[in-house]
Every structure is written in structure tokens, then in C-alpha cells.
Design brief:
Elements lengths: L6 H9 L3 E6 L4 E4 L1 H7 L10 H7 L2 H17 L3 E7 L8 E11 L5 E10 L1 H23 L3 E6 L4 E4 L1 H7 L18 H17 L3 E9 L5 E12 L5 E10 L1 H30 L1 H19 L5 H32 L7 E4 H18 L3 E6 L6 E4 L1 H17 L5 E11 L3 E10 L6 H4 L11 H7 L5 H11 L4 E5 L5 E11 L18 E5 L3 H13 L3 E5 L2 H13 L6 E5 L7 H10 L8 E5 L7 H6 L4 E4 L4 H13 L31 E4 L3 H13 L4 E4 L2 H10 L4 E5 L7 H16 L9 E6 L6 H7 L4 E4 L4 H9 L8
Parallel strand pairs: 12-14, 18-19, 18-20, 20-21, 21-22, 23-24, 23-25, 25-26, 26-27
Antiparallel strand pairs: 1-2, 1-5, 3-4, 4-5, 6-7, 6-10, 8-9, 9-10, 11-13, 13-17, 14-15, 15-17, 16-17
Amino acid sequence: MSNMPRDDLVFPLYSAGIGTYEWDVLEGIMRWDTQMYALFGLEREGFSGKYQDFLALVDLSDRARLTQEIAAGLDKGEEFGSGFRIVPSCAPAMRFLEMRFKIRTSAEDKARYVNGLCWDVKECHRIAEALASEQRLLSALMDNLPDLIYFKDRESRFTAVNRVFLRRVGFKTHSEIIGKTDRDLFADEHAFAALADEQKIIATGQPLVGIEEKETWPDGHETWVSTTKVPWNDGSGRVIGTFGLSRDITARKLADENLKVAKEAAEKAGRAKGEFLANMSHEIRTPMNGVIGMTDLLLSSKLDSQQREFAETIRASGETLLTIINDILDFSKIESGKLTFEILNFDLVETVESTLDLLAAGAHGKGIELVCEIAANIPARLRGDSGRLRQILTNLVGNAIKFTEKGEVVVRLSITSEIETQVTVRFDIEDTGIGITPAAQSGLFQPFSQADGSTTRKYGGTGLGLAIAKQLVAIMEGQIGVESKPGEGSTFWFTAKLEKQAGDAESPRQHNQHLPAARVLVVDDNATNRKILFRQILAWKMQPDCVASGAEALEFLRVAAIRGKPYGLALLDVQMPEMDGFMLARAIKLDPAIAKTPLIVLTSFGQALSTAELNENGIEAYLVKPIKQSRLLDCMINAMSKAVDPNTAFELTVPASAVISSEPSLPLDKVHILLAEDNTVNQKVALAQLQKLRYKANAVANGLEVLEAMQQISYDIILMDCQMPEMDGYETTQALRQREQNLENACPWHAPVYIIAMTANAMQGEREKCIAVGMDDYLSKPVRTAELQTALERWKPAQSP
């Protein structure tokens, strides 16, 4: 084996990434140069030189074919080449190689030696795969789009069409239409017009975009299409024909004509209706209230079963009719500028987040991310008409969800101006939907105006919602507008001037001063979600980092653990590609170095997780999107409060003055405690703390269950979470105090229940708010055991007479 290329020849080949080899066929031994080892991903000691060991390196799917090709080549004695795949030991990715075989024969004219070259053809393979993938994508696009797609040569003869086009013209196979022209399909009126357009495109190279064409068929019936035609170029840029896309707009054309007539009539009737309904408001509601009131009186009298059924039907129908009339009157008042607004105290954050809760099902049903970002400097305690604010938000966010097929809808709140008694808040609703043309935007907020007739038919709607929203915003001394580009989504925005509540000089949304300065890792493939969570966590004086995938998360967690600065918490999005939140959670718990990291997962609307699922995946808790700030803070603090590993990046300390006493001063077995907490993990924490203090307690999940439980047992103490579904802690407390007031006359010695607020909303003024609604004490989360004991000891059992 002495015919390997000389060094002065091998060096240029090596520089080009080409390996050389020689193979003694009779001995079955191969000799490789250095580049061959590199191509196969081996060290020198990793290859024995045996031909069979060389074949073992070839991927199993190519091995038999390569063996047959080599045998045939040796038999013919001719130079040949072959491509194959290998899986190198030093890299997980498949590698594609090309190998040339040059045969030298012995005196007996048999193959004795083989030498040749080998090189990496990965790039060629990648290009071939990319071309095949592009071809598949084009075929899928052609066959699945609802529009008519067609290619024509320079003589306007069809060369290719999609399935929709075939069905429209009544053909079953492509061979039936290839070579035909529009004259074979349509009447001359349309065929000649289409031919003229296409010849103009070929001559000028300029496309025709969005033109409306009337198609006249041989039987005389007419249809309409919206068409875009562009020049079809070959690789050198020469125009070889035209490419067209047409959308059937026949229904829209008919609807436009009908709408034009109806709009004129509606505008005329609307003016008369507005004046009439505004003046007749009192006259309409008064008799309806009389009908309903008298029906109630009738139902309180002695009636047989059939008479009672008739009367109940009258009452139900009357109430339904009254609701409809009130809605019509409200709209007429908006039109006439006579709608009155309520100015009441409300929580801005709760109003926005609860509105998004109602819309979350529709968003997640379409696979759309619905997220909310509220600037940290916005005061939550404001005065105004929260119902009208909800009405505007519901309209704009609902529209954003309706016209968005994929991507996200983001609601952002910021301050545009602020004085001591007022604040002007700006609401931005951003979507990744279909967008709106500049021409359509000009009439978007006018009554009975639609952005596009075909869009309206696809998505539904009356065209009145934005007009109503504009008038409501005007009453709030604000402005409304839109920024949009077709195909790039829209941003609807409005501003509203709102009053600050008295005594609320500072923003109540400042961070909890007792929060641990923990490191938090956010794992979410959605960039907007990452950005919003990063800002929110940073505002709470924690140290957030964000990654977009499970693989990145594992790397960040492991590096942090190695450096001795582990993360105190990780927020994991459930729906991520490649590695979802559950897979990531299990991977974290299987790694001893990071297994103790508390995990919270973020799920889509309606994706409830059981305690068993949480425990199975090593998850502390879960939150349903869109994430409420108060719930997020609550959940994070409780998850981190349970962490006891001394290596975690935060520390929860108990003041020396609050050390738990070894001997309780109360008859603990006589104290009846009810825990009201909707979060199952928080329930476990609080119950465990109470057990440690030797108290017994029952747990419920919302305010309605609190009221029901109090009917069964006379509890001494209620640990009341303020943020709960169905009925929150504030409403529940007020209901309990009202019930106690009613009982006071019958039982003057009756002891009122002692209510201790437990809330993550530990901002300025929260304690005062809790005391104002009737609570007796206040604890901010995370609740330390010593603080809980101190609060319990402040309760003094009432003395019975």
C-alpha cells in the first residue's frame, strides 16, 4: 500500500476538507489520512483499519446498499462513487459523505487495491432537502387555500391550477385544463378582458393588485372575483407568463348593494329613532314596570297550577322585554349625548384583569396568547364608571381576539398625565390579526360602518361596537384611535380621565417590602410574556432572568447552581415546543443539583391541574392565563416560603421578638378556625402552620363556601384570603357582618367571628381597606408562623353570659 498521494498533493485536498484513503481488498485493510478520521468523527485509535469496521460506521439504512455498490464496482473494475450517511461518535447529528473508489487490479486482472477520495456533502443534501421541503410547502399552499390560484404562459394558456380552481370550472384532473385559455371556460366578455390584462402585465412587468373582475359564464350567469395578477419570471428574470390569485366576492357584491340601500334607510330611521326613544324613555319603562309589578302581586295570590304557569311566563317575558328596552334606550342616550355615568370607587387592576378573565376562553380556544401589562406606577384605587370601562375593554379586546387567527393579544396600561386628584390612563390593545387598510380606518368609528364587507361576513358583528366605544371614551374625557397595517395586526388605543380616591396619595401597587430578593427564572417561548413577567418581577424587587425554551432553562439552572447562586423559583409555561412545561419540570426534578427549585407552571384557560398532577411533576402550584398580578405574587411568595434549602438564593427570617412560645396561652382544642383560600398549595401551607401551632382548622375555597360553612359551625376565627373566585374576601366579610347585625337583636351576647385578612396585596392602604370592610386583623403574605401565632393570640374569646 504505497500509492497514497504525496504530501504536496494531500495538503490542498486536506485544506479543502477532502480525505484520501487506500484499501487492500485482499487483506481487507484500509489506510486513512488525517482528514478521513475527521470526516468520520473518529480519533486514530477509534478505527481499526478493517474494512468491516468501516462498514459498521455507515448508517444501517445505507449499509446494505453501499455494500452492494462496492461489490458491483469491484466486479466491473471501474471507478465509481457512492453517497452514504454516518453518525459520528463525537456529534449527535447525522453526517452525509460522498466517497470515490478507483480500482487497481492485480496480474490476474482482479481488484487488488482501491484508493480514492471522501468529502462531506451535508450542504448539498441540505439544499436538496430544502428544495423538496419548499416544493411540499408550495403544493400544500396551492391545494389548501380557498382562493383560486393559476399559472399561465405567455399566450395565457393554463399551465397549473389548484384544486379549488378545478372544482370551480367543473374539471376533475389537471390534464383537462392544461393548455386551455379563458375562452374555453368563460364568455368572450370576461375572456378578452382577462387576456388584455395579462398581456399588459407581460409587456410592462407591472402587477395588477386587487382588481374586481366580473366573470360571465357560457350559460349567462355572472360571478365576481377580487384578483391579483403578477408577472411570472424564470431564473434569469425573463417574464415567461403570469401568476394569478382570485377570491370569490360574489356574495359581498350582492351584500354591498343591499347594504347601501339598507344603510341609507337605517341612517334616516336612526335619526328619527334616536329622538323618539330619548323622549319616550319614561313612558316606555313605566308601563313595563307596572306589568312586571302586577304580575308579582298576582303570583302572591291563590292560583291553580295552570294560572301560576301563565303568570310566571308573563313575568319572565316582561323582564326579558324590559332588558331589551333598557339596552335600546341606553344606546339612544349615547347617540343623543344624554347617557349618565356613575362615579364610584373601584379597583382598576381588578376591573381590567376580571374583564380579561371573561374573554380568556375565546382567546385560548383559538390558541391565542392573551396577556396584560399594567405599568407599576398606575394607582389601582380610582373613581369612575367601571362598568362602562369594562364595556369598552370587552369590545376592543373581543374584536382583537375575533380578528386574530394566531399569535397574541396584549393589553397594556400606562399613564399619559397625572395630577394630585386625577390620572389619565392609556389603554393599548395590540393584536397580531388581519390588520386594517388605511382607507377603512377613516370610517372605522362611524355607526353602521364596516372595515370590509368580506371581513364582516367572515367574522360577524353589527358595526356599532366601535361607535359606542368612541362615545363612551368621549364622556370619559378621553380619545380613541387605531394604528394598523393589513396583515401586520392592529393596535386600538383609548385614554380615560379618572379620579383618584381620597387619601390615596401614593400608589397602592408598590412592592411588598418584605419580599425576598430571590432569583426567578421565567421560561416561556412567547417573547411578550417574557417581557411582561420580567418587568413585573423586577418591580417586586426580585432578580428575574428569561429564557425561551426548556433546554435553555436547564442550562441556566445548572450554571446558577454550580456558581452557588441557585434560582429561588422558576415559572414554566406549559405550552412550549420541543419540551413543554411538564417535561421541563420532570427534567428539573431528576437533576439533583437543581431538583429543589420551586416550580410554578402557567397554563391555558380551562386547563385545570389536580393535586396528583402537580405532585407527579414536582410542581408547587399553577396559574391560569391571563395571569393576575395579585395571584402571581401570592403564588410566588407561598412557593418560595416553603423552600427550606439553605443553598437557595433568598432567606426568610423570623424576628427575635416574634419567636413562637413553647406553651400556648389559649385553649387551642376549643378554638374553631376556618381557612378561606382558593389556592390548594396555600391551603396546605396555612393548615400545616396551624397544625404546628396546635390549632385545628377546616378549609374552603371561596366566599360562598365560607357563608355555607358558617351556617353549619359557629367558627371563632376566619383566616380570609382577599382574592378568591365567585366571592372575594371583601364581599364575604361584608356579608358576614350584615348577617351578624341581623342576629344581634335575637342574641345580644352573640360573639362576632374574628376575621384575619391574609393577602398578597401588601401595598399602601391595603390594611385600611381590610379594616374598613369589617376585618379585625391583617397579615401580608408570605405569612410567617410566628406572625400567624401573634395574630391568633390577639383574638380574645368572648365570655358567654
